[in-house]
Structures are given as C-alpha cells and as structure tokens.
Automatic annotation (TrEMBL):
It comes from Nocardioides guangzhouensis. It comes from the Bacteria. This is PadR family transcriptional regulator. Residues 7-78 form the Transcription regulator PadR N-terminal domain. Residues 89-171 form the Transcription regulator PadR C-terminal domain. It holds the Pfam family PadR.
C-alpha cells in the first residue's frame, strides 16, 4: 500500500513517467522504500484506474508521464493525516536472530559485511546533502525541504545501524554474544 503513496507523493511534486519515478526513488526514497520498474508501472495502472493519477504528456517513443489528480491529492492528504502503525518485517534482524548457527568468525564476518553496507549508504546519503542544490522556492523548494528531512532520517538510521553492527561484531569476537 505504501508504494501507492510514495508514487502519489512524488507526482505531487512533479509529473513523471514510470521510468522517471523509479529514477527519482533511487535518488531520494531508496533508503526507506525500494520499488522495481514492474511494481511502479503496475501501481501506476491501479492509480489511474482509481482516478488518482491522470495522463500528463506523451513523449518520445510513446513515453507516458502522469500527474496526480485532485482525488489523488485528497487520498494522499488523508493518508498523511492517518497515524502510521509500523509492523516491522526486517530480514536483516531475522538473520541476526539465527546467527548463533554460524561459528563466531562467520557471524562476525556477516556483521562486518553489514557494517560495510551501512558505511557505504551513509557516505552516499551524506554526499547527497552536500552536493544537491536546493531549489529557489515554491513547491519544489518546500518538497526539497521535506526530502531533506527524510534524508536526514536515513542518515540517522544508517549511523545507528553502523554503530550497532560494529558493536555486535565486537561482542561476537569477544565472546559476549
């Protein structure tokens, strides 16, 4: 269900094709929500059938862009007003739960690999903050400000998970598990 609102939120900033949405997600939302091309196109079709998006422009080679409709904006605003209830389903933590099945060296190596991933994403997100110019004003400026808030949450998450993975690997190596 959240892919629907990720798409609507992105289209509220600027009309886009499915391809553009995937690229935009890769640049902005991939730290919290990854979506395949197929999933985005499927959801765009559902959103259009529900009247939440409408065709905007047809470009070269029949490339169709979409814009959020008034009904889509209403649905997005209603969703934003509804408290989010988080039901975590985290494959990473599920794996950690069963790391006891590996010897300490393999478990610590797994945690080291996680730390490397977190370190890389943290560097990527921090470079976006440094390198991405802010729009001057208007809707794009406001959207950018909230994009930066979401990005700062991603940075905080990666920092926390990096510290956790490094500490967990240290504990396993020290036999403190």
């Amino acid at each position: 269900m959240s892919l629907r609102f990720a798409i609507l939120g992105s289209l509220a900033v600027q009309p886009a094709s499915g391809y553009d949405l995937v690229k935009r997600f890769d640049k902005t939302l991939n730290f919290v929500w990854w979506a395949s091309h197929g999933a985005v196109y499927t959801e765009l079709g559902k959103l259009q059938a529900d009247g939440f998006v409408e065709p905007h422009e047809t470009g070269p080679r029949g490339r169709q862009s979409f814009a959020i409709s008034d009904a889509g904006q209403d649905a997005l605003r209603e969703w934003l007003r509804t408290p989010a209830v988080r039901h975590a389903r985290d494959d990473l933590i599920l794996r950690v739960f069963s790391l006891w099945l590996l010897d300490d060296d393999a478990a610590a190596a797994y945690l080291d690999d996680l730390a490397t991933e977190f370190r890389g994403r943290l560097a990527e997100y921090e470079s976006r903050v440094r390198d991405e110019p802010a729009p001057d004003s208007g809707t794009d400026g406001r959207a950018h400000a909230f994009d930066q808030l979401a990005l700062s949450a991603g940075i905080a998450h990666e920092r926390t998970m990096l510290a956790w993975a490094e500490d967990a690997a240290r504990q396993v190596r020290a036999g403190e598990d």
